[in-house]
Design a protein that fits this description.
binds zinc ion; alpha/beta; 14% strand
Amino acid sequence: MTTGVVFTEDFKKHETGRRHPESAGRVDAVARALRDPSLRDKLKPLPPRSAEREEILLVHWDRLYQEVLESAGQKRTHLDSDTVTSPDTANVAHLAAGSVLTATEAVMDGEVQNAFAFPRPPGHHAKPDKSMGFCVFNNVAIAAQYAQKRYQLKRILILDFDVHHGNGTQKVFYTSPEVLFVSTHQSGAYPGTGELLEIGKDEGEGFTLNVPMPPGMGDPEFLRIFRDVVVPVGLEFAPELVLVSAGFDAHRDDPLGGMNLTRDGYAGITQEILRLARSTCEGKVVFALEGGYDLHALEKSIVATLAVMTGEQTPEAADFSKAAEELVREVRQAHGAYWSSLRES
Ligand SMILES: [Zn+2]
C-alpha cells in the first residue's frame, strides 16, 4: 500500500505573525512528522502544484479571488478579523488548494493508494464569498468540485473531524445530493454553526450530517460516533472518493479546542475511515490538514494517522462509551428518515 504525502516548506511563506495560533511553526511540526523513523520508506512525496484560477472559481466568487490577489506584495491585510495575509499569502493559498488537487489526482489516477496533503493556510471555514477563520480558499471543497468535474464522480463523501464546524464546506454543498458532508465538532465552538438539525436543503436534504459533541468527549466517544453513525451512513451512501478535512485540534492538548482525543483516537478514527473507503471505493481517501495548534500533539497525531494509512495495524480499540449513547440516539432521530442504516437498531 503506497501513501502519498503532499508537502512543501513553501507553506511557511504565509506569515500570520508571532502570536497567531495558525503559525508557520505548524509547517515544521508536519516536517518532523514526515521524518519520523517509523514512517521511513513508507511515504511517497508528491510536490504540490498551484491551483489554477478556474479551479478556485469552482467554489469561490471572483470578487473574493480578486481580494486575495490584491493582497499579494502587501505587508499585511485582513480578510476577516482573524484571517491575515502576508506578501506571499496569495501565492501560497494557490499552492495550498493545489496540494489537495495533487493528492486527489494521485489517488484517482492510481499512482498511490491514498494520500495526505498538508496545505497551509487551511480551508474548511472559507465560504464562496468570504475567507474566514484562518482559511483563505476552501481547499477541500475545491478538490471535491474538481473531482466531480474531472472524474465525473457522482458521490463524494467529505468527512470533517476538525474540532470546529466546517461551515464553508457545508455551505458549498448544502443543496447537493452528490456530496455528503459529515462533520464531528465541538458543540458551541467557533464558528457557531453545525447544529444537528442543519441537514441540507432542497435536493441536498439529508446530505449534510452534523454531530455536535459536548466538550470533553474523547477516544471512546469519537469511536462510538464513527462506528454507529459515520461508517454506516458512509457505507449506505457508497462514495466513489472520500475527502477528509483532518483537523487535529480535538486533541486533548490543543489550546483552541475543548475535546479529549489522543493520538490513539486519531489512529482509531483513521482505521474506521479506511474501512469505509475499502468497502466502497477501493480505499480511495485523501486527507487534507485543517487545524491543530499544539505543535507536539499535531506532529504525533499526524504520525499516528499516517501509520494507519500506510497499513500499520493498530489494536482494535474499544468504544465502551456510555456518554455517547444519547448523542447517537439524537443523530438517529434527526437522520433516520434519510438513512436506513440509522433505523435498524
Ligand atoms: Zn479547527
